[in-house]
Amino acid sequence: QVQLVESGGGLVQPGGSLRLACAASGSISWLYTMGWYRQAPGEQRELVARISRGGTPTYADSVQGRFLFSRDIAKSTLYLHMNNLKPEDTAVYYCNVYVREGMDYWGKGTLVTVSS
User: Fold this and answer.
1) Cα-flanking dihedrals φ and ψ of residue 20, to 5°?
2) Torsion angles phi and psi, residue 9, rounded to 5
3) Mean pLDDT on 91-102
């Protein structure tokens, strides 16, 4: 079992920055596939950034160059550094750990609102 708790969301103006954190606990291996997803109102959940099996992060085109996915293994925490935020980045952000089919773990999400 893996437990994930996101934090760091909030209201930010366009062009601003936020850092989301995801505290992980339980039986976790840093070789698992880990990612950040988001779901805007009325939209489907979409992938924002992902690290597969300990490799380097990949990003959705919409956030490439603005967002950075990092991990602090000592603190068992995932981070999503978000810069130059846009109103279209408004969404609930979720972290995810995928082990294999049937072992796919999600946090409850943290809301990011980008508005002036």
Assistant:
1) -90, 145
2) -70, 170
3) 94
Q: What is the pLDDT of residues 30-41, one digit of tens each?
A: 888 999 999 999
- Alpha carbon distance 90, 24 (integer Å): 24
Residue 102: what pLDDT? Answer: 87
Question: Number of C-alpha atoms within 13 angstroms, CB side, residue 42?
Answer: 1
Tell me what the mean pLDDT of segment 68-78 comes to. Answer: 92
Residue that is written with structure tokens 């109103």 in the block: 87
- Greater pLDDT, 113 or 32: 113
Could you tell me which residues are beta bridge partners of residue 110? 93
